[in-house]
Each structure stands twice: as structure tokens, then as C-alpha cells.
């Protein structure tokens, strides 16, 4: 399950990090620190999401 989780993390992580950066920019947080924090928050949030998606895919096999 770990390889599937890591592959999913590549896609889900970039999607959530990008969405968080866009949300930060939309809210007017244009300094570098806010953008980096938003990207890191999206990347960290994607770890449990990737694991849950991988688990669900393996269970439904």
C-alpha cells in the first residue's frame, strides 16, 4: 500500500498545495511567507488524504 500512497501523494499533494496557494493569494496574502505556509499546509494535509484514498482503492479491489 505504501507505493500506491506515495504515487497518489504526488498528485493529491500538488493539487492541494496549489489550491491552498491560490486561496492565500485570493485572500490578499501576497508575501512569500504566507505562500510557503499555504503550500506546506496543502502538502501536509495531502498525506492522510493520500493514505485514505489508497486504502479505499485497495479495499474495493
Brief summary:
The protein is an all-alpha fold and 61 residues long. Helices cover 87% and strands 0% of the residues.
What features would you describe in this structure?
The chain is mainly alpha-helical. The chain has one domain (2-59). The protein contains two helices and no strands. The protein has helices at residues 2-26, 32-59. α1 (2-26) packs antiparallel against α2 (32-59). The longest helix has 28 residues, at 32-59. The radius of gyration is 14 Å and the shape is elongated. The two termini are 12 Å apart. The model has no long low-confidence stretch (mean pLDDT 95). This is CTP synthetase. It comes from Silicimonas algicola.
Topology pattern, helix = H, strand = E:
HH
Tell me which oligomeric state these chains represent.
single chain
Rg, Cα atoms, Å: 14 Å
- Indicate the overall shape: elongated
Overall structural class, as computed from helix and strand content, comes to: mainly alpha
Distance between the termini: 12 Å
Strand content: under 5%
Q: How many DSSP E strands?
A: 0
Stretches where pLDDT is under 50 for at least 5 consecutive residues are none
Give a quick account of the main beta sheet: strands, pairing sense, barrel closure.
Answer: none
Number of helices: 2
Chain-averaged pLDDT: 95
Number of domains: 1
Helix content bin? over 70%
Keywords: Membrane, Transmembrane, Transmembrane helix
Protein name: CTP synthetase
Organism: Silicimonas algicola
